[in-house]
Design goal:
This protein is mainly α. The protein has one domain. The longest helix is centred in the middle third of the chain and has 37 residues. The protein is rod-shaped and about 85 Å long.
Length: 77
Amino acid sequence: MKRIIWLIIGIAVGVYAVTRLKKRAKVLAPEGMQESAAKLAAAVRHFGDQVREGMAERETELRDALGIEANDREDYR
């Protein structure tokens, strides 16, 4: 009886290990790495958009507070 229990436990651990290894292999495959890089690029792009939006809002607030017209702006870029 003990052998059957250990056999079942061994099979369960083996199935679990194989499943985990397949998931890890999928993540480390070229397609998985490309997907991870695409997610990172999208996150960086979103962060940049949020920063630009915040800068524009703050610039508008400062111009309103100082009474500067938007068309009086000198572009130093």
